Amino acid sequence: MKIAPSILSADFANLERDIKVVEAGGADYIHVDVMDGQFVPNITIGANVVSAIRPTTKLPLDVHLMITEPERYVEDFAKAGADFIVVHQESTLHLHRVLQMIKNAGVKAGVVINPATPVSAIKEVLSMVDLVLVMTVNPGFGGQAFIPSCLTKIEELAAIRKECGYDYEIEVDGGVVPETAALCAQAGADVFVAGSYVYNAENPAQQIELLKAAIES
Ligand SMILES: O=C(CO)[C@@H](O)[C@H](O)COP(=O)(O)O
Ligand SMILES: [Co+2]
């Protein structure tokens, strides 16, 4: 089980401090939410910021691209030091090509589906990805409520992985708190993104501990 704090809820004026705090607190990945104001109704950060935070941590950077036609920026994020580049099925007409571009750049490739997108929409690429991200809220903002109907998609992905011998990680993102993390773990999730639960608290390290305890239980 891995915890990936989302720096979307960190203090953007103190990103280095907020990354180091979760690294010391037992985080496994740093989740970076990239939004373009087109694919989602919010704008966050670009490859320059990924480049700037790269030297601040040894943890893998899990870069979640919420941008239209991500193929235009794969190279930039790879050069910036992303360890995972995760693209939305809904954001491109050429999903297979984008995933291939990510792999050719030497970066782990992930695919993500929105709450309204079924697992069948990514069936053809499951054999080539290192990570599948199941959005458990609609993308665009932190602090939204978990959508329980997404749980069956986690179960489905875990069953396909077992049946076909694939080795992707199953990640969940949105509304992750101890109660919902436990449900996702039960369904078969391996990586838990948490933004507001970790950062909108006095002690982010303690929040990570609480999430881990809930998942293990
Ligand atoms: O990708 C996204 C939002 O689109 C996320 O990674 C959020 O940052 C999760 O925030 P919380 O729901 O955990 O507050
Ligand atoms: Co995200």
TrEMBL record:
Keywords: Carbohydrate metabolism, Isomerase, Metal-binding. A divalent metal cation binds at residues 31, 33, 64, 173. Belongs to the ribulose-phosphate 3-epimerase family. Substrate binds at residues 6, 64, 140-143, 173-175, 195-196. Its cofactor is a divalent metal cation; Fe(2+); Co(2+); Zn(2+). The keyword Isomerase applies. Pathway: Carbohydrate degradation. This is Ribulose-phosphate 3-epimerase. PANTHER family: RIBULOSE-5-PHOSPHATE-3-EPIMERASE (PTHR11749). HAMAP family: RPE (MF_02227). Binds 1 divalent metal cation per subunit. Catalyzes the reversible epimerization of D-ribulose 5-phosphate to D-xylulose 5-phosphate. It comes from Vagococcus proximus. One of its GO terms (molecular function) is D-ribulose-phosphate 3-epimerase activity. It catalyses: D-ribulose 5-phosphate = D-xylulose 5-phosphate. Its EC number is 5.1.3.1. The active site is at residues 33, 173.
